[in-house]
Amino acid sequence: MSTKVLAVLAAATALTLTACTDAPPEDDTATATTTTDDCASLPAADVTSPEGWIGYLAEHPDSVGLVIDDGSGNVVAHGADDPQPLASAVKVVHLAAYAQAVADGTLDPAEQIPVAEWERWYLPDTDGGAHPAALERLGVTAEGTVALDDLVTAMIQESDNAAPDYLRDRLGDDALTAAAEQGGWDDFAPPTMLGNTLGFIAPEDTDAGLWDTAQRYANDPGFRAEILELVQQPDVLPDDPFGEMDRIQRDDNAGTADRLAGIHRAIADGSFGSGADIARGHLEWQPAPPGAEGLGFKGGSLPGILTEAMSLRLADGTVATAVILTSNMTEADYTAALGSFAHQGLMFAAMTEPEILDRIRCAV
Fold this sequence. Notes:
Elements: H1 5-13, H2 50-59, E1 64-69, E2 75-78, E3 84-85, H3 91-103, E4 112-114, H4 115-119, H5 130-138, E5 145-147, H6 148-157, H7 162-171, H8 173-182, H9 193-201, H10 210-219, H11 221-231, H12 241-252, E6 254-255, H13 257-269, H14 276-283, E7 292-302, E8 305-314, E9 319-326, H15 331-340, H16 342-352, H17 354-363
Helix pairs in contact: 1-16, 2-16, 2-17, 3-7, 3-8, 3-14, 5-6, 9-10, 10-11, 13-14, 16-17
């Protein structure tokens, strides 16, 4: 998910938050927590507004990992090395591996892929409508073909879940781990979007492992038919869907805010190397806001989990990055947050307004 970023930037620029009343640390790059006793009163927690998100961060320190770097030496970090569920934010690694493969000639972005091959990794009615929306935008049907690069746009723009597993199957795990390492993520373990979903709705069928089960779904028509029938059952969800999804994600799709911020920065500033421009073009698919050369982003959402990573390239060459990984959200907070995407507004403001960054430092 997370395609609404430009819609919330207006809210970000309208923030009028009071900065901390004490002076910032002597070292502007310090990431140590500033106690809230030395700061102005924090706002009430409210995930429907950028300001309210500051209060939410303050009230939920154990379920948030964040790194915000304005590119000018000012950094705020909290739980930056603590693994958190990533949801679809992890797809930046699949994008990076694809970009490297295109750059070295392993893949041809214009190659026509049968939509049926893509859909071997697609489990209907489990992705919030992302896959059908992608097909509609691209003007293709299940009987047709799609350019490989267009398939990749669906992974980033609509957050299609079948595309990353298609790429993992085609490129192999070594390509994904190598791309992650190129971006500074040296302990990356490739996840499976389809496998996570199968583990959620059919845990008894995943004893062989999530990726093996995902591959079975893709290659075994009989097993696929069983799962498709199961998805239609009214009692398919576990008794505790939020807790179960959190467990599955932590086992198969977890990472740290610091690692995720690092690969976004490497792509944005070009230090990723070969393929950086290709990956950057996909992440910066929306028009840049005024005064910026590009705004890249990829986030995700699953029950109780909301994640976002951004990079902002300014005309003077400054590159800012922001990552917020949130887990263990209540159903009410999660639903409200998805209805507003206000966290994106806060992140953009923190990358561009020092007083907002200081205010977040007060909260965490």
